[in-house]
Amino acid sequence: MSDALINGLAGAGGGIISQLITYPLLTVNTRQQTDRDVRKSKSNFGTLEQMCQVVKEEGWERLYGGLMPSLVGTAASQGVYYYFYHIFRNRAEEAALTQKKIGISDGSVGMLSSLFIAALSGSLNVLLTNPIWVVVTRMQTQRKESNKTDPDMGLLVVDGEKSLPPPADKPLPYDTKHVIQEVYEEGGIGGFWNGVLPSLIMVCNPSIQFMLYETMLIKMKRRPDGNKKGSNGVTAFEVFLLGALAKLGATVVTYPLLVLKSRLQAKQDKTGDIRHRYKGTWDAVIKMINYEGLYGFYKGIGTKIVQSVLAAAILFMMKEELVKSVQSLLAKDGSNALKRKQL
Question: Which of 72, 261, 266, 317 can bridge 240 by disulfide, Cβ–Cβ 3.0-4.6 Å?
């Protein structure tokens, strides 16, 4: 089994575990990002209070809305990303060693090369898995709530434009088949790639994350006491901390893109308030600035930092442990096979 395949499978397994643990936080964060009500979003409701509110008004199951397609998406995303990342990195390392032999470099893969490898892997991941995340976002943002309109007005007026009030929410359950059909009816096949532009730009998030992680990991492995901590020179807890720090830095830098992506992937209200209707990426940017200000691009960032840092730390730790376990099993199988041949 190749190292790329081992890391791809381990990344998928680690991603599923981290997703299961942090999913309620992810659901609340997606709702915060897609909330257009400025007064409501600036209220003092904390993450735990919002979780309790969802449970009280809609039931426990709504905290796990879209869990199954999300797990599929996480496994696919992490598997695709790690698989291509290690293929590209192995080729970069081979090229670096060739350059070392002719005296051009020291044989190591530089920061810029690592950044490019992560960006290329992330772009392939986005293009292949974006339809899954459109479905997940729709399911996470579906709410049990009634629409309240002024019976005397009948119409909503925004910036001098009149429009019909939003239709009543579709009854739950809002299952995967329902969402796929809805997305297709609204935008055809292209609807499954809503938000792909900010998603492609946002590949700098894992690029920054992995660049920081790889840099810190290499430095820790080179410590004088590295050999005392196992074959990789670092403990599982240290990997946990490195993953958390790397994700924290990447999340703070790229969060506005994540909010924009969620807005575009969520269900567009085409009959109600024009502030809730986005024709595309730039239209969403302009309307968010005009109606919500720069604050709108950072809605729910506190929740996201907690969720993403925790998820990334768990993912990195579990991925490294799974890789070690698989490699150890393969080494034992190879040793046993060799002994049997000698006998």
Answer: 317
